[in-house]
Specification:
heterotetramer; A: 216 residues; mainly alpha; Four Helix Bundle (Hemerythrin (Met), subunit A); two-stranded antiparallel sheet; 6 helices; 77% helix; D: 568 residues; Cytochrome C Oxidase, Chain A; 63% helix; 0% strand
């Protein structure tokens, strides 16, 4: 579809176009909810079945890094919200600065995550690769399910983060060219929605994976 | 005819809402505080309440993000309906499956 | 080609009920299909397009009619649901004094052991007019134990016991199928169920060569695997009560050290052998090693048979074990 | 009444120089592969799903041939297991699920609501590419040895024990899932935001309603299947076990996750076919649809309740008996919106002007077969009867009545009905009626004996079977050969008609929908000017623009005996 100014050919007006883009993004995010929902279901079932093994396995995770990462991701959501705000206020430079800040915070999150993964490899906690959990055999097996879910859940989350970083880069380039400080801002707003959604997933992953019965 | 067009117009012309920066900052601070709270509480033995507290705090945080960072508080009703559908369906998945697991070994 | 049946043989106590229900369903299905079919034919002929009837007439809707044809199917559906559910409850509720037979499914055969020890493969001999309960487990993938003449089937799962009961009402030889797809030779994984007169069944049982009953094997394993050194009765062996006695455990309610209690059924006992730390009896420590990889599914079923056999006996008034509720074990 | 000026009326369009339309707007392979026009994408989908249907059909014929004799007529069990798996995978994921939504829905939804295109045209094209990439993975798995797990991919067989190309097939289906998601997303957003002035929700054709309901399932169900397949692939490829029973994993968890999508997926197949049927019945009865609102709400009701019933596939799998009862009760509730639809379709014929043209034959056939498929669904929803017939040929017969008798009949009926709109040409009427009747007869001969086989206890997925089941299997195979020939007929005459068929007018039936208000085939932008809708749906009485005579109030025709003279 060719663009005539900010309006795509098959829309009647800008309002219709904006509403459409926003609704499309929200619908997409609901598919993401269900996507992670499957993992949350698997997690819930096994945590209910193998509570103690899950608690023991959870204690192998680095809570401090997890908490730190939660903070980093919340801050990145904040800067992303500010980026949307800057786009609404039509401030191009501010928009670019906030986008860069978001990207940096996202990269920081992924770096910390990378260190955590490396730790798991060192501690022989990677199922299917070098898994060797200290403890009774049955508990070790159930803990293996925990680590399988840990890697699947955080891995899927990290994949979304990486996609988000790529998306931010593209947004940044177009923002720098001044695309999103006029009437056409849907990509920035939808990018924001996506980024916040990824944040929300982590908000749930953190307590579920890292904070099982730490008081023992 | 007349009202249907009006209705369509209302649907399509939701005014764009600009949230002040102060609100964002406030929400961000709240989220960070809640993160700290959930982290600290995890080390206190509350019995089965630990997981409840953790989930409740996570839900509060997620709600704040959805409402303010994602502007759902200012979004048209249709958007809120979509969000509601997502949440309801996820609970259908969890609830009905757990309905099997939680009753599977009941005496019969 | 030969003559072929249109209705399967009926050889169990539930088969008649299932067939009656099935016939009711057929009547409902045929009734509605015929009503709709005749209505379509009649209306589309009666109001066919022809000169003078080029356009249909506007027919206003009727809420009453809509509600009527929502309520009527709803009521019929609820009757059918209740009927089907009642039937299902009968099928799933095992009678208490059933003959226990153990079934292990694997790709692609059924291994069956009878209460007195006789083993057989892909064939099941049962006495007529006697409740039989199968305790089933799979060594690999999901299988399904299906006897069409009995109208019963149940999936056989890896890692968990499922049970199936029936009471054969007619002697004869009936198909046994695996009805959950399990790989290449799925269609070969089956055989026959032989329903015999009780006397014949006894004769058949004794026809096996020097087999011991699963209980006896289980008792032997109980000693051989040194279960007895901890779980044995102090009165018998003088072993210290490091672990709860297993006498009278089966079917009783067990208090756990986290304050909860469970029923000591097949699933619980299985878990306690393979994953002893999962549920620990109140008052004991988590010291038992796992027997995963040490005992096979067959042996596990034999141990279970032994524990079951001493479970029916009341707990001896052994010292160190108090409480009216039978103390329980791992 | 109608604010838009109808485009070239049949008389004014010269047969040799067709007007500018989406087909002749530009030429060349690139103009098709890079098109964002929903109508061209629909044709791309038509092309793809026809190929996959042919593949699935080919496997089906081999399956039926194999079952001609008890000991297996054709191949060994290894090959047979691959045949039925690939038949199921191709037919379900690559034909039935995309067939009506991605072909007819894609083509018609913007036309029906008076939009120029779907909301996201590029995503629409992307979804076609994703669909085919997924298909390539799956076909790769066939070529390199096939998959033998059944289309249900039950763990632990699929994740640990099977020695076939499970991973490639699973990845293919995972990828294809995203094309469903994008299509569903596109439809939902389009229906919400792109309706023409005056096209209120209660003026939407039922076809659009049913696609809206279908899209809800697409977007809320498909992701669950996607993540489930990710877990299977992770367990198989990386040994990161989630379902592995050796680790204490629960194989039933997979079944819950799988059926959470795959049961509603049945409604993905049947709901659009119901939409097609509704359109056809209203048009060929030339009458307003009886109980329009009830039918519209029933579509949404089926989609919603459809999500609550999945565990009726697991009654004998070892789920809790309490859960089984809840799911059985909920399963029965699906009967109510389904019954509402059937009764309303039937009531629509009352006082209509019924014409037995080809699409109508398919639509009436659809109702009959759907009623039978639906009623036998009651057997499976009730736990007591399901225990016996579960995983037998009864189930096979039941879901083929829904999927082939329902969805495929609806799809073919829809293709005939909108063929003049899609191609601008008519198909041969007598030949197509004959094909419809052949299909109806062949279908029933194939699948009705399987109900009996199932009650006799023949389990599904059997490469060999006890000899007493042979007679019924031979009937079934004989029917399948008729059915197979029946499918060749439409393929042949559709291709013929694209070039040689008589030129179709813009509204040949005539019908009331907006899609018939533009020319056949429609121009790229769909409408010359944005249409304004001022009429209620399926209203033939107040539409002088259709050129029909006024219905006569006094009906002279005397009541005649119900005849059985015609067709099926």
């Amino acid at each position: 579809m060719e663009r005539t100014g900010a309006l795509f050919g098959h829309f009647r007006d800008l309002d219709q176009q904006r509403e459409t883009a926003s609704l499309g993004m929200w619908v997409f995010l609901m598919t993401e909810v269900m996507f992670f929902g499957g993992l949350f279901l698997a997690y819930t079932v096994y945590r209910w079945k193998y509570h103690d093994a899950f608690a023991a396995a959870s204690r192998e995770l680095d809570v401090t890094m997890g908490a730190l990462n939660t903070g980093v991701l919340i801050l990145s959501s904040f800067t992303m919200a500010l980026a949307v705000w800057a786009s609404q206020m039509r401030k191009r430079n501010l928009l670019c600065i906030f986008l860069i800040a978001t990207m940096l915070l996202g990269a920081a999150f992924l770096t910390v995550k990378g260190f955590e993964y490396a730790q798991k490899f060192e501690h022989h906690l990677v199922p299917g690769y070098n898994y060797d959990f200290p403890g009774p055999e049955a508990e070790a097996q159930h803990a293996e399910i925990f680590f399988a879910l840990y890697f699947l859940m955080t891995g899927m989350h990290a994949v979304h983060m990486i996609i988000g970083e790529g998306m931010l880069l593209i947004l940044l380039i177009y923002a720098w060219k001044g695309h999103f400080t006029g009437d056409y801002r849907a990509p920035i707003e939808n990018g924001g929605l996506y980024w916040h959604f990824v944040d929300i997933v982590w908000i749930f992953l953190f307590p579920l994976l890292y904070l099982i019965d730490l008081h023992h | 005819m007349q009202d249907s067009q009006e209705h369509a117009a209302r649907e399509q012309h939701a005014p764009e809402h600009i949230v002040p920066i102060k609100t964002y900052a406030l929400i961000c601070a709240t989220l960070l505080v809640l993160t700290f709270v959930t982290y600290s509480v995890a080390f206190v033995d509350l019995g089965p309440l630990n997981v409840v507290v953790a989930i409740v705090i996570a839900c509060v945080k997620a709600t704040l993000v959805v409402l303010f960072f994602m502007h759902a508080a200012y979004a048209p009703r249709r958007t809120r309906l979509v969000i509601l559908a997502g949440i309801v369906w996820m609970f259908l998945l969890l609830g009905l499956t757990l309905a099997d697991y939680l009753t599977r070994f009941l005496p019969r | 080609m030969q003559s072929f049946p249109l209705f399967p043989e009926r050889a169990s106590s539930v088969a008649g009920g299932v067939d009656d229900f099935f016939i009711l369903l057929v009547i409902v299905a045929v009734f509605f299909s015929v009503v709709v079919g005749v209505a379509i034919f009649y209306l589309s002929f009666r109001y066919r397009r022809r000169p003078g009837n080029e356009v249909g007439q506007l027919v206003p809707g009727s809420e009453l009619l809509e509600i009527t044809w929502m309520v009527i199917p709803f009521l019929i559906a609820m009757v059918l649901f209740a009927w089907g559910a009642k039937l299902y409850v009968t099928m799933r509720q095992s009678p208490s004094d059933a003959l226990d037979i153990y079934v292990v499914g694997k790709q692609w055969m059924w291994k069956i052991q009878h209460a007195d020890g006789r083993r057989e493969f892909n064939e099941l001999h049962v006495p007529v007019n006697r409740d039989v309960e199968l305790t089933m487990i799979s060594e690999d993938v999901i299988h399904d134990f299906y006897v069409p003449a009995f109208r019963v089937k149940m999936d056989v799962l890896p890692g968990r016991y499922t049970t199936l009961w029936f009471r054969a009402t007619k002697t004869g030889r009936y198909h046994l199928f695996c009805s959950q797809y399990c790989g290449t030779n799925h269609s070969q994984m089956g055989g026959w169920v032989d329903v015999m007169e009780p006397s014949e069944y006894q004769a058949w049982l004794s026809g096996g060569s020097n087999t011991e009953s699963p209980e006896q094997t289980g008792q032997r394993l109980f000693t051989a695997l040194a279960c007895i050194s901890c779980h044995g009765d102090p009165s018998e062996r003088g072993a210290g009560p490091r672990a709860p006695s297993l006498r009278g455990v089966y079917g009783s309610t067990v208090k756990l050290n986290d304050g909860q209690s469970v029923t000591a059924d097949d699933g619980y006992l299985r878990e306690s052998v393979l994953d002893p730390g999962a549920k620990i009896v109140a008052g004991y420590d988590n010291i038992m090693p796992t027997f995963q990889g040490v005992v096979s599914e067959d042996q596990l079923l034999q141990l279970l048979a032994y524990i079951k056999s001493i479970g029916s006996q009341p707990a001896q008034d052994t010292p160190g074990e108090a409480g009216p509720a039978a103390p329980a074990g791992q | 009444m109608s604010a838009i000026t109808a485009n070239p009326s049949p008389a004014s369009s010269p047969p040799h120089r067709p007007h500018e339309n989406y087909l002749n707007a530009n030429y060349g392979i690139r103009s098709w592969l890079f098109t964002t026009d929903h109508k061209r994408i629909a044709l791309l989908y038509l092309f793809s799903v026809t190929i996959y249907f042919a593949m699935g059909g080919f496997f089906a014929m081999l399956i039926r041939l194999q079952l001609l004799t008890p000991e297996g007529f054709l191949v060994g069990p290894d090959t047979y297991d691959r045949l039925f798996t690939m038949h199921g995978v191709m037919m379900i994921f690559f034909f039935l699920i995309p067939s009506i939504p991605a072909v007819l829905g894609n083509f018609l939804i913007p036309l029906m609501i008076g939009a120029k295109d779907l909301a996201f045209p590029k995503l629409n094209l992307l979804s076609w590419y994703i669909f085919n990439i997924g298909a390539i993975f799956t076909i790769y798995s066939i070529v390199t040895g096939g998959v033998d797990t059944g289309w249900t991919f039950y763990t632990p067989y699929s994740s640990i024990y099977s020695n076939s190309q499970v991973s490639a097939a699973v990845i293919g289906i995972f990828i294809t899932g995203f094309s469903s998601i994008l299509t569903g997303l596109n439809f939902i957003v389009t229906i919400h935001t792109m309706r023409a002035p005056g096209m209120t929700w209660w003026r939407l054709p039922i076809f659009v309603w049913s696609h809206y309901a279908t899209s809800i399932i697409f977007i809320l169900g498909t992701p669950v299947l996607a993540i489930t397949l990710v877990m299977v692939a992770a367990e198989r490829l990386l040994h990161v076990g989630v379902f592995d029973p050796r680790l204490g994993g629960d194989p039933l968890l997979f079944q819950h996750l799988f059926w959470f999508y795959s049961h509603p997926a049945v409604y993905i197949m049947i709901l659009p076919a119901m939409g097609v049927t509704t359109e056809i019945i209203a048009t060929f009865a030339r009458k307003n649809l009886y109980g329009y609102k009830a039918v519209a709400i029933a579509s949404l009701g089926i989609a919603a309740i459809g999500f609550l019933v999945w565990a009726h596939h697991m009654f004998v799998a070892g789920i809790s008996i309490y859960a089984a009862m809840v799911f059985s009760l909920l399963s029965y509730l699906v009967a109510i919106p389904s019954a509402v639809k059937v009764f309303n379709w039937t009531a629509t014929l009352y006082r209509g002007s019924v014409s037995w043209q080809t699409p109508m034959l398919y639509a009436l056939g659809f109702i009959g077969l759907f009623v039978m498929g639906g009623m036998t669904g009651l057997f499976l929803a009730s736990i007591g009867a399901d225990v016996h017939v579960h995983d037998t040929y009864f189930v096979i017969a039941h879901f083929h009545y829904i999927m082939v008798g329902g969805a495929v009949m609806g799809y073919l009926g829809g293709l005939h009905y909108w063929w003049p709109k899609i191609t601008g040409r008519m198909y041969p009427e007598m030949l197509s009626r004959a094909a419809a009747i052949v299909l109806f007869v062949g279908f029933n001969l194939t699948f009705f004996p399987q109900f009996i086989l199932g009650y006799l206890g023949m389990p599904r997925r059997y490469a060999t079977y006890p000899p007493e089941f042979q007679v019924l299997n031979v009937f079934s195979t004989a029917g399948a050969s008729i059915l197979g020939l029946g499918y060749l007929l439409p393929i042949c005459y559709f291709i013929w008609s694209m070039r040689y068929g008589p030129i179709a007018s813009s509204n040949p039936w005539p019908a009331t929908g907006l899609e018939w208000q533009t020319s056949s085939p429609p121009p790229t932008e769909n409408f010359e000017t944005t249409p304004v809708v001022t009429w209620e749906p399926y209203d033939f009485e107040h539409r002088p623009d259709l050129g029909l005579p006024k219905p006569e109030r006094a009906r002279p025709a005397p009541l005649e005996a119900p005849g059985l003279e015609a067709g099926d």
